[in-house]
Design goal:
This protein is of the alpha/beta class and 459 residues long. Helices cover 40% and strands 19% of the residues. The chain has 2 domains: 236 residues, Rossmann fold; 155 residues, 3-Layer(aba) Sandwich (Rossmann fold).
Length: 459
C-alpha cells in the first residue's frame, strides 16, 4: 500500500443549505408515499428557508478526503462526521426531521412529540437537533419534544448535553433505557407500540399534539441523498459503463445511507455506483442477502475451532473473516439488525449496478488499527486515537478494514473506491449521560406510560 499525496480535502460547507433546492424537489416526490400507515407524519415537503432555518441547517460539513492508493486502487473517504457534537452522519437526517416538525407547528399551531428507537446514534443526533432548535428559538418544550428508547447496554454511547443537564429539558425529552433479552430489536417494537397506542388515544380525545414515530426509511433516505450531491461536487465522475463505476463502501446495519445515496444518484439521472456492504459476523444479514437473497447462515464458510489460537479459523471464503473469536461476535452495538426490511432493495441495486458484501472481525480491525489511524491522520482526519479501548463508534474502522481486506483479497474490480465514513468517536470526545438521568423501563407498557404522560403535558 502506498499512501496518497497529502492533498487537501474538498470540504462542502453547510450541504443541507447548499443542496436544499434539490432536497426540496426530492421531498415533493416523496410526499405521496405514506406506506399505507395511518400514523401521523409531518409533510415531506420542505418549507422555504428563512434566516433562522438556514442557521439551523448550517452546522455539519461533508469532506472528501484522499486516503491512499491500495493495490492500484484510488481510495478516498466521504467524511460525514463533521458535526462535533455527534460525530455521526445521523445528524443530517435528524436536522431534516426536526425541520419538518418545526414547519408543522408553524403551519398548524399543533405541537409534535417525536418518538425514536435507537441503538444510540439516531437518538444522540435527534437530541442534538432538538437542542439546536431550542437554542435558536425555533422550538420550545411546549411545541416540540423527543422520547428516545434505547437499549440499556447503549448507555456509554449516549452523549450528554444541556438536554439532560437541565432538569426541565430532561423531563421534556426523556431517554428511556430498555432492559430486554434482545434489546436492540426490542426498542423498535416498544417505541412503535407506544406510538400506535398514543395515536388511538389522541384521536379519541382529539388532542392537538401529534405523536411521530421517526424511524422511517424515507426520513433518512431524503437526507442521505445529500451524499450523492456532495460527491458530484467534490469528486465528479462522468463514466457510466460498468468498468468505470465507482465502488461506494459503507459499514452498514440496514444500509439506509447507501439507499439514500442511490436515491440522490437517481435524482441526478445516473446510476454510476456499485456498493460494498461491510458488516460484522454477529449480524451479517445484508451480506447474506446479497449472496442468496435470504438471511440463513447456510452460506457461512466452514469454520474450525483452534484451541491454541482461541479462535475460529477459515481460509476458503475471502468474503468472511479468516479469524474470529466468536461466530456471534458483535464489534459495535450500532450494527444490530437481524432481518432488515431494506435488504431486498439493496440487493436489487447491487445486482443491477455491481458490488458485494464482506464481513469483518474485531481481530481484523485491531490488526489494522495503527495502519488505519495513520491513513486517517494523513488525510487531515482526527484519526482513531492511540488506544482502541477508547473507541466507542467503530463504523469508520470497520469500513476501512473491509475495504483494505477486499482489495488485498482481489475482490474489487473498480479502480476508485469511496468509503462513506459515517461515524467515529472516542470516549474522550464526550461525556456519557449519567445513569441516574435515564429512565429505566422493562416493557412496552412502561414506554407507553412515558409517552402518554408527555402527550398529556403538551396538550
Amino acid at each position: 500500500m502506498r499512501s496518497s499525496p497529502a492533498d487537501r480535502p474538498v470540504v462542502v460547507d453547510a450541504p443541507l443549505v447548499t443542496f436544499y433546492d434539490r432536497l426540496a424537489a426530492l421531498s415533493r416526490t416523496m410526499e405521496s408515499g405514506s406506506g399505507g400507515s395511518s400514523l401521523f407524519r409531518p409533510s415531506f415537503v420542505l418549507p422555504e428557508l428563512d434566516d433562522g432555518l438556514r442557521r439551523f441547517l448550517a452546522s455539519p460539513t461533508i469532506a472528501l478526503r484522499p486516503l491512499a492508493e491500495v493495490g492500484g486502487k484510488d481510495v478516498r473517504m466521504l467524511d460525514l462526521t463533521g458535526n462535533p457534537t455527534t460525530r455521526t452522519t445521523k445528524t443530517f437526517a435528524s436536522l431534516l426531521i426536526v425541520l419538518r416538525a418545526i414547519d408543522h407547528t408553524r403551519r398548524t399551531g399543533g405541537p409534535v412529540l417525536m418518538v425514536t428507537p435507537s441503538s444510540a446514534n439516531k437518538a444522540v443526533a435527534l437530541r442534538d437537533a432538538v437542542l439546536r432548535a431550542y437554542v435558536l428559538g425555533l422550538a420550545t418544550p411546549r411545541t416540540l419534544r423527543l422520547v428516545s428508547v434505547v437499549p440499556e447496554d447503549s448507555r456509554e454511547k449516549l452523549w450528554s448535553s444541556a438536554l439532560d443537564d437541565d432538569p426541565e429539558l430532561r423531563s421534556a425529552n426523556p431517554v428511556l433505557s430498555l432492559a430486554s433479552g434482545e434489546p436492540a430489536e426490542s426498542v423498535k417494537a416498544a417505541a412503535l407500540s407506544s406510538v400506535e397506542k398514543a395515536h388511538v388515544k389522541s384521536s379519541t380525545v382529539r388532542q392537538r399534539t401529534r405523536v411521530w414515530f421517526t424511524l422511517d426509511l424515507d426520513n433518512y433516505r431524503l437526507a442521505d441523498a445529500t451524499r450523492a450531491f456532495a460527491v458530484e461536487r467534490a469528486w465528479p465522475q462522468t463514466s457510466a459503463n460498468s468498468q468505470g463505476r465507482r465502488l461506494h463502501a459503507h459499514a452498514v446495519s440496514s444500509a439506509y445511507g447507501l439507499l439514500g445515496h442511490a436515491l440522490g444518484e437517481a435524482h441526478l439521472g445516473r446510476s454510476h455506483a456499485a456498493y460494498l456492504l461491510i458488516q460484522h459476523i454477529g449480524t451479517p444479514a445484508m451480506v447474506l442477502h446479497t449472496r442468496d437473497a435470504g438471511f440463513s447462515r447456510a452460506s457461512f464458510p466452514n469454520y474450525t475451532w483452534r484451541e491454541d489460537l482461541r479462535a475460529w479459523i477459515q481460509h476458503s471464503d475471502p468474503y468472511f473473516p479468516f479469524r474470529v473469536d466468536s461466530l456471534e461476535q458483535r464489534i459495535d452495538s450500532t450494527f444490530y439488525t437481524r432481518q432488515p426490511a431494506t435488504a431486498k432493495a439493496m440487493t436489487d441495486i447491487i445486482r443491477d449496478q455491481g458490488g458485494f458484501g464482506i464481513v469483518v472481525s474485531r481481530e481484523e480491525c485491531l490488526e489494522r488499527y495503527a495502519e488505519i489511524d495513520c491513513i486517517l491522520v494523513r488525510s487531515g482526519h482526527p484519526g482513531l486515537g492511540s488506544d482502541p479501548a477508547q473507541l466507542r463508534e467503530w463504523s469508520l474502522l470497520m469500513g476501512l478494514t473491509g475495504v483494505l481486506n477486499a482489495v488485498e483479497r482481489g475482490l474489487v474490480s473498480q479502480e476508485q473506491i469511496l468509503l462513506h465514513g459515517s461515524g467515529s468517536y472516542l470516549g474522550t470526545d464526550y461525556t456519557a449521560i449519567p445513569r441516574e438521568r435515564l429512565n429505566p423501563v422493562h416493557t412496552e407498557t412502561d414506554v407507553a406510560k412515558h409517552v402518554f404522560q408527555l402527550l398529556e403535558d403538551m396538550s
